Automatic annotation (TrEMBL):
Keywords: Signal. Pfam families: Polysacc_deac_1 (PF01522), SH3_3 (PF08239). It comes from the Bacteria. Residues 92-160 form the SH3b domain. Residues 1-20 form the signal peptide. InterPro entries: Cell_Wall_Dynamics_Protein, Glyco_hydro/deAcase_b/a-brl, NODB_dom, SH3-like_bac-type, SH3-like_dom_sf. The keyword Signal applies. This is SH3b domain-containing protein.
Amino acid sequence: MLTGSIPLPAAASVPAPVVAAVPAATVSLAGALSIDWPVRVRTTANLNLRTGASTAYRILAQIPKGTSVPVSGRASNGWYKVSYNGYTGYVSDYYVVASTVRTLDDLNLRTGPSTSYRILLSIPKGKSVPAYARASNGWYKVSYAGYTGWVSGSYVTSYPKPPSAPQSTGPNRTSRVVLTFDDCPRTLSSFTSVVDYAASSNIGLVIAPTGDCLGSFKSRYGVDLAALARAKGQWVINHSVSHPDLRPLSCQQTGAQLGGSGVHTNFGRPPYGAIDGSVRCGYDSRGMAIWTWSRDTRDWDVKSKSITVSRASAALPGDTVLMHMQWYGFSPDALRQIKANLGARSVGVCRAYRGSDGTGAVVRTPVLLPSSLPC
């Protein structure tokens, strides 16, 4: 037994079953954001599996301490939806830990949960290792190469490995041009008109709103811009919460800027395209690949519709074109001109999403982008 270690949460007791007293509607299940929870979790105590996401719900079974179970969802209060022994129900997030964690750097495995403990060995960057417990200071108890010890929670993540894609052109592996728009639209009507037009004209845009933008439109209009764009066959990626230069931030601070009210997905664009090692670490920690651009219209600088259209129309096959929702490229007429100009040069634009087979009506895009866009 390790001495001087930081205590873990006490085991969860098993009270007598009770009839569910909380309506299911009080706890929503975020089934679409699968990137935000581990594929499997491991129990750190003997743990009740319940019919709903609180202790007011009936107990289905008890899951023994140390059991790894698959996760299919997460409720808004943090409880996980899991399956065990033929039952599907909910367990408290307080008594589980990700079954595996991935190292974000070469990382010391120590005999206890702090840097004062002896180093057993170094775990290479990018290794996924089984996790068994989490100390109150965030350190994880893991196993690697026959040793069991502790690693700092600051340098591991339970998020999946980011997709592999070229930084400047992302998951577009076709000869078509991807038109992308960052930041925030001026009005709801301007946003609606653009995504409606793009869907009707078979144009697949990539929208990169900030979390602050999403929050503002939800607060004012009750509208989720990301969901609205996806419903029209458009792709949505992360662009941070408040649009800071991420380079002065630590890996953890960058990761925080990519969560919260921001878009939760597997591709993201750093504000200003500013990238260094810490920024890369932050994106890796959230399971996001970085997607910048290969052609910049500088619409924010020229503030001219004709110049923006001209620069976007000069795109080469496979380009990712950068524009912004608050400037003049973000309008149905600008999109019409850009598509026509590119077409006159036999260059196509990415198409609105019609499912993986690319046929039929426009359908909702998935939250997670595929490794190859069906442009």
